[in-house]
Specification:
disordered C terminus, transmembrane, 15 helices, Growth Hormone, Chain: A, 78% helix, mainly alpha, globular
Amino acid sequence: MLLMFLARLPMTAMGVTMTLYVVNDLGRGYGAAGLIGAATTLGSAIGAPLVGRYVDRYGLRPVVAICGVASSTFWISAPHLPYQVLLAVALPAGVLSVPAGTLARLVLTALVPLEQRRAAYSLDTILVEASFMIGPSAGIMAITQLPAVYALTGIGVCFALSATLIYRQNPPIRAEADAEVFSGERPPVRSWLTGRLVMAMFIAAGALFCLVGMELAALATLRASGDIAWSGLLITFMCVASVLGGAIHGAVRRSLSQGTLMVLLAVLTLPVGLIDHPWWLLAIVLFPSNVLCAPTLAASTETVSAAAPPRVRGEAMGLLDAASRIGLAIGSPIIGFVIDHSSPGWGFTASALGALAIASVGLFWRRSRTPARVPALTSS
């Protein structure tokens, strides 16, 4: 878990670091920086299930070696590339990014007994929150205090080191009890990508849509009220609330389902838009919804782990990563559009309603793929 935490740090730092590099050093606008971010996100969404599938087929080491070389090469060469070339290679670099999230879930599933996985997934989600507290701040500090070539090369070196450590450690991605399963043929996608799994993907996408929209709306609210200086403290407070929720979720014997947690997350986000100042009151009303952040993400992992056959668990976890990234990718522009054409408060409402709409698509999909039960005919 510590190894995967270290592997996630450069991943959480790369978005803001690349944005500031494109804006400050290349002299481009935020739209141009957003195109690179969108290309990287789209690439990672495409690549996550493919990389997961190759992990299932060939094991951890070959995949980590290829992805580690690709990620480190991209970031080390980035400060020496013109913008057009940087944009062109952003998508393939996203496809071949180190799959730290997928690997972390596979390793935990292999090493942790079934009855203790909720606690393990919750702890992993807490470490994800911790990485988002450290990574972006470190990236901002590096790109603003050091020459850009050092900042971007440093991210590439971090990717190389983390991939090397994972390669040398070679943690198990398959439980010993599942060894026989991997010796057989791979089941076709239609046999295991059930309505339950698809619905879990949609719920995860909805949760990330709500979370990124909530964060964007919170920052817009602070800016509108003149409290933008408190944005760092507010984001930290939101992360602490999520960590607390993850600890509670991992400690209880029974927890709410993934769908119930996501609905509560959305419902508690709806009234936040009624508060626009002061910043500390906004933090208080954001606390309940953020407490549900880590539990919802952990429950998503737990649901997919339980529903996916061991033989294709890597690909299933990759699909979960892809769904989460799609939720993030579509959340920012949609909520940004709502805020630009209304007010920051409506951003919270749109985040909640959008999340519920995305989850509803998953529910509809599951019901449409579940055959109706035909009552048995009995003769008198």
